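Bug report

Summary: structure tokens for Zinc finger SWIM domain protein differ between web form and batch submission.
Environment: batch mode, default settings.
Steps: 1) Submit the sequence below via batch. 2) Compare with the web form result.

Sequence submitted:
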Amino acid sequence: MSSPTFDTTLLHEYASNQSIQRGREYFQEGAVGALVLRGHQLQADVAGSQPRPYRVEIEFNAEDVAEACCSCPYNYGGWCKHIIAVLLTYAEQPDQVEVRSPLIQRLAALERAQLQSLVLELVERVPRLVDLVETALTLLERAPDTLASNSRSVNHATTGTTPRPPVPVNIRALRQQTHNLLRSQSGHWDNGYDNEEDVVSPDLMELVEQSRPFLDAGDGRAALDILEAVTDEVRKRWDVLEEVGLQPYDFVNEITSFWVEALLDPALSAEERQRWIQTLAAWEESFNSEGSYFIAAAQAAAQQGWDDPALNRILQGETVPGGLWGDEQPQYADNITQARLRILARTGQDEAYLNLSRAEKHHDLYALHLLKLDRVQEAIAVGLEQPLDQGERLELAQALYQRGEIEAAFQVAEQGLQQSDAVAMKDPLFSRVAEQMDDFDLCDSYPQGALSAWVRDRAIEQGQTERALAAGIIAFREIPRSTAYRQLETLAGAGWPDLQLKLLEFLRTATCASTETKVEIFLRETLLDDAIQAVESHYTASETLARVMDAAIKQRPEWVIAQARQQAEPIMDGGQSAHYEDAAKWLRKAKQAYEALGQKTEWRTYLGALCEKHQRKYKLMPLLRML
């Protein structure tokens, strides 16, 4: 099987200008460790701002990247710089990639005794794996009981059922792991490591994630044992962690959903829930205001349980004036409702699930559950009649499409496209705000763009060109990309010249179009002045600026000279020896522009002045002499 390929010109389809620039810097600095390709999965470690490198995993499909993820906390939309660095290394240094067989193939060849020996050896080498292995084994051993418990109803589980004993968990070891991890993080800060990405440590969340299998198995007690151990250790060091620059409040926000679901375990008695309320109250002072959301949500879940009269009426399908929360719905209401819905789904209480999701206006979950129950027409009606955000609408449309409900899927998706007209975003006030957001990489048109792109691509599959074109125009306006532009050229056919003029006019003022996208399209259409305007108006990656300069050497040589000097001279004047080669590259473009003007003498005069000025910089002078 041949190795998957990746075209680096597509990076701007997935990442911001800043991420690409930083990613290329990481690539050039050699921050990417060994690359390992197993089948269609690429893995690599990238040295970042933390002592421990970030792990990047990329899954390829037949044509492109299917999924890319990184253990860093970047969440501002698109790929992070670490993913960019790995893909650049993969594409430009293929000899650095080690190709291996997929792990599942290698494990399949082992005998039982060999597998046991392998696990034991790994545990011996990495002691922290012991808890993970024991947790997995416990779940395997309890599989029959899990199936039985999941078949119970919530009401039955809260009355007359003997509580299940907690699953044995090595709490002492878990606390020690958490303690050691927190101590190491605070130590890294004290030793001078920067914290440019305010992180919830991936390692810390790995410890919390050990509770997930127990939650899925319906064992809230075991999950609470784990959550208490990790959370309490963080609580004890809260003030210290804040003092050294870590952000522990991010952690408690992350764990809220875990705690809420565990405290809603129907097997917990009223006495147990009350004890947890008291424990949380005792913790509140330690967490101060930063942890108030977590404490309030967890206490509310424990207080309500499944006994609340209004809740039980809702679960039975009754209409309750004011709903479950009355006039003022708390911020954590969705956390609690979603946890209840997960439990109802797990225990097979379909009607209760539908009643609660409808009452709490989780229309997306309501519609998707209707589909699961083969109540297709009802699900379609929800999609057409109820307010859904773009992400929810896309998920429902995809589910309908997969079931063969093609036209209904299109109608549900297009309902969202009709509700948010991209042209309406030309309001002057909005434009100013959007431009400011774009300057800080905060402009996010992804939900609307993803929805319209999905309609476009599925319509192409179905041979519905007119529908694909209409959706494609919206997709381009929301997320301008060169590939989307070329796709529209194909779809428009004879109508392309008129559409092209409109798209180019839009692109000139589009605040959320990357400079790279503008440059690629403008140069493709030989609109050099527009390309120059694009790189002069916003931050531009050096590669993009160089591309425009190369295109402008013959037509705008004076501009090329000015840009080359602007890039090269600060490097030389500042003695930035690590970037002298970059300065030489810019000066080489200046030389070409001088020659295009027929000014070789002027070039030699300028170069001579540079050599005179920087004659003591022994690393720079050989590069200047080569010019």
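Above is the batch result. After comparison, the two runs are identical; trailing whitespace caused the diff. Residues 424-513 form one domain. Strands lie at 32-38, 41-46, 54-60, 65-70, 97-100.
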